[in-house]
From TrEMBL:
It is found in: Membrane. GO terms for molecular function: G protein-coupled receptor activity. PANTHER family: G PROTEIN-COUPLED RECEPTOR 157-RELATED, TRANSMEMBRANE PROTEIN 116. Residues 1-23 form the signal peptide. It is a multi-pass membrane protein. GO terms for biological process: adenylate cyclase-activating G protein-coupled receptor signaling pathway. This is G-protein coupled receptors family 1 profile domain-containing protein. The chain crosses the membrane at residues 524-542, 563-581, 601-624, 636-656, 676-697, 718-737, 757-777. One of its GO terms (cellular component) is plasma membrane. Its main location: membrane. Keywords: Membrane, Signal, Transmembrane, Transmembrane helix.
Amino acid sequence: MRCSLAIASLLILVSSLCTCISAESKNESIIIDTLNDWKRCSLEGGEWSICLQPTGYGLSWYCPLDESEHALDKLGNISWYGIQTDFHPCFKCPTEDSPLGSDCLSTMTTLVEQYNITPTTNEYEDIFEVGIEYCAEMCEAGLSGDVCSDENKCTGGSHFCDYSGDDELTGVCKMCPADVGECFNGGFSSSDRSLKECYKCRLACYDVTVSSLSVDGEELTSEPIRMATQESTLSASGPLVDCSDIILADVDICPDAEGSVCLVADYTIHSLLFFDISDKAEKSGCVAMIKFDGVSSYIGGSHHSYDHLTIPFVSVGTNDGNHLKDNKIGSTAHVGSEIWGSACYPSFEAIACNDKIPCQDADTYCDYTVAQNGVYVEGECVECPKGEGGEPDPLGCYFERREGSFIKTQEEVESCAKSCGAYLTYDECKFCPNDISAFEFGVENKADQCHFCPQNDVLHPDRFVPLFGKNITCWSMQAFFERLEVPKDSENCQLAQSFNYICGCQGPGYAGASTQAKKNALVWVPRVTAMLSVMGSLFVLIDVLRERSRRSKPFFQLMAQMSFFDIIGSVAYAFTSLPIPSNFYFPGAHGNKASCTSQGFFIQVGTVACFTNVSLAVYYFLMIKKGWSQTRLKKVILWLLICPVIVGMTFAFAGIPFMGNLVLWCNNSAPWWPDIPVAIAIFVATFIMGSVFWDVYKKDQASKRWRQRGDSGSGNSISTKVFWQSVWYLMSFYATWPPYLALQYFWASGKAYDTYYFILFAGALVPLQGGWNWFVYARNRQLKGLRTAMSSYISSRLVTGTSFRSVNRSSTNRSSNNQSDQP
């Protein structure tokens, strides 16, 4: 549009105005008219020559004449936008959007290169320097030594304002260094403010290309794709094929595209094309690519994210695009694009920032929009994200809140997160992601990039994912992982994918449960084993409490306490997913924060059973190794009962603020510290029973020696029986609490997000201690009954020289001893 306006204006200018002063006239200086609406060239004492239409057209021009007029003879028949004249031309003053360049230096460089002016002797230097000089004199202000301020700026791209102090209102224009890296050398800039101004000297340049397109000999208007690098000239011909699915269906390969010109209808990306679109076309074998907007009639050359094009890539208007799609598929198309110059622009108004110049103002961050060799190295300071009501929205650094609001590069994400206080985590928890510092960005191969929904099948885009923060929708999560290169084998990727079932995505699902049957198994298998545990512990508890003799013995008191707290924990486990907040969308989850906290609390209360196992190990240690009697054991039983309760209840109450979803049920989700007591309990119980085992082993070896000498060694039989009873209870302990600890460790270390069968196996064992205890308890009761029956049978058959009454009394005494309860 601007090009057309400029061409029309210049045609009017050439046809209606007089020519610039002839070569015969001499001038000693250029006189600049200071009127706002006209800018003129003139020879001293000569006539005025208008080189500008009124400023309402937005055009500014300068007349590049020197005193002798011979230095620019090479440019005598050159004019802007290809208008050929036979007199010295007037050129458009540089502006930020000028294809020739935004300052005199880049403009003259482009002109000389574009028109292939061959340097001879000093001619090239003369043309170059004189053109810059007069361009600057008529178009620019603020050269070396001029006073400058925020309102009166120095010449952009060639000079910067050097402030003596950060609080000074004015400074002095200073020539930009040849390398902006010199800005950071000590003493070059007088203040930090000057350093930021100096960094604006860097010119951002890009290739300016022209394009051509014809189909079956019919010329069509086209524009090249901007912001992409290519060889100086690209040209190709081939049959036209429709490859719109590489955008619309997000397929990687366009079928039957080998050797063809690929046509793509863009209904989604609009002004920004990601480089993988052209990559897909190249991989499909396309020799050229034509893109048109399926929504807007604007032809616009779309901006292309960093890439090097190996095939010509052009854009056409909607009408032409639809015409090609409907009528020209299979026709021969010729596409060309050629670099004819470069455009450069400095950061005139922008507050430049980079790794060395951070943003100074509060609530701002560096947007990193300028790339070098595919790496974003600098940008402008912009405001931190805000919500629709203007409130701070730190999570906007990561996730798109509304269309067009997302942050585009990972460098920008990191800068925003650091400056705006945005974190992708709650307080520490087992099932929470690592913060941004733990995010690994960048992959060597696109196939290694994480995709939240690998099949791009987000069925519920507006559901909230209860993971990285509040109100993060499914489509925000999908956009985040599609936009940023997070490795697919990273912990945060696996954690995010374990929640993609909420969005209806195909994939590993909740804890690796990829089917509904697997999800149901995670609910019902632990529920069944928990109920078995409740019944087992209830049997043991009733059996102990119903007889006074058992209630008074330390062993049975420990078993009663263990069973009681196991019932509490197992009942909590039996609810499985029911108390989990419903926004996790897991089968059976109908709870809320309060129900989740309650379940987690009672599960933690159930760990008293674990610590009571340690007391049971101490009991066996004192009885077997130390030989304590029941009377002596009764003096310490109170401590063996109280200590587990104190430890378990302390951690249960301390964990209330940390209760959260742990996949199978709710539990203390804080990392590591809730599991330390259980780990210590396992270690202590193992150490104590190991000591008992070693003692029994030594006694067994000694008894073998005594038996060889004729001693029966029957004195150790009771200790041996009690030892094996302790081993069985230790196995019950090991079948429950190491799996519990392993599951907690895997949650905290990020290794159990999709290990379905491990989670199912551990989930089945964790609630089952009551079942194992019942098995061991019942086994001992059965063996005791068998021993009693055998003893009675043998006693009734014993007939010796001793009186029957004596034998019967002896048998009765033995039977009575055998019928005594377990120790």
